């Protein structure tokens, strides 16, 4: 059961945070989700995945991509469950939502899954051939993402008035002013709807609440600063990413990422 975790700096547009196959899958529960896009596919048996947007049964060669910080759990649905998996990072990681049509859960059928299985097998084999070819791994990683994106008809919300009038302006406001003291209440007032209605729209189009999207964006920016500005104090990073104090920032970061900001910085 080969399993590889990234141990080198991120230099390619797309690469694997982790990748593996022949893994006898245990029960997993992640109330705060996982910090990277990650993909799980059945090799043998069957598994059941519960997410905030629904329940999925994965049989042979069927898979599911889950976006960062989306609540989920999975367990055996058969007497055994062996899986392949991959989680994704890279210098172009921020483009993955666009590749996936902003869907935060993407199911993959068995026909497309068979192609993805071959790519995962090839990538695992490449890690065994030291020194591994990081450029070719990046190409294969991108090929896996494209296969996942092409596995189902992804409907873009760009033509929907509710998305254009309410969700998109809030996304742009978060991108521009994430360092400011934004709240769901202030964001909803900006588009003249209630916080509850705005959250329903975010769940409809992005499979997450407005608060979850805002927090995820801030954590993503904090991760960038932790890596690119190694001398920047944690308190300064907290303030630059919209957190009122460092204690709150550390608590939210650890819940989302599974490590404190300093631990994350040391690991990367």
From TrEMBL:
Q: Which Pfam families match?
A: AraC_binding, HTH_18
Q: Which residues form the HTH araC/xylS-type domain?
A: 168-267
Note whether Transferase occurs among the keywords.
no
Which terms are listed as keywords in the entry? DNA-binding, Transcription, Transcription regulation
Q: Name one GO molecular function term.
A: DNA-binding transcription factor activity
Matching entries from InterPro entries are given as: AraC-bd, Homeodomain-like_sf, HTH-like, HTH_AraC, HTH_AraC-typ_CS, Tscrpt_reg_AraC-type_HTH
Query: What protein am I looking at?
Result: Helix-turn-helix domain-containing protein
């Amino acid at each position: 059961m080969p399993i590889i975790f990234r141990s080198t700096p991120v230099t390619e547009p797309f690469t694997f945070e982790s990748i593996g196959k022949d893994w006898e899958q245990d029960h997993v529960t992640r109330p705060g989700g996982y910090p990277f896009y990650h993909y799980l596919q059945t090799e043998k048996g069957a598994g059941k995945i519960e997410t905030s947007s629904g329940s999925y049964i994965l049989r042979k060669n069927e898979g599911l991509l889950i976006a960062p910080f989306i609540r989920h759990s999975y367990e055996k649905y058969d007497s055994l469950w062996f899986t392949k998996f991959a989680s994704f990072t890279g210098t172009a990681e921020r483009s993955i939502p666009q590749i996936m049509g902003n869907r935060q859960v993407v199911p993959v059928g068995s026909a497309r899954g068979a192609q993805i299985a071959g790519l995962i097998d090839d990538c695992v084999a490449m890690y065994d051939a030291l020194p591994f070819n990081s450029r070719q791994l990046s190409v294969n990683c991108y090929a896996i993402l494209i296969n996942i994106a092409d596995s189902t008809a992804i409907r873009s919300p760009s033509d929907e008035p509710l998305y254009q009038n309410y969700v998109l302006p809030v996304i742009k406001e978060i991108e521009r002013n994430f360092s400011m003291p934004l709240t769901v209440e202030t964001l909803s007032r900006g588009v003249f709807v209630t916080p509850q209605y705005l959250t329903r729209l975010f769940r409809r189009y992005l499979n997450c609440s407005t608060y979850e999207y805002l927090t995820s964006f801030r954590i993503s920016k904090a991760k960038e600063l932790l890596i690119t500005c190694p001398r920047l104090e944690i308190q300064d990073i907290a303030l630059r990413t919209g957190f009122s104090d460092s204690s709150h920032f550390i608590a939210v970061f650890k819940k989302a990422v599974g490590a404190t900001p300093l631990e994350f910085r040391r690991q990367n």
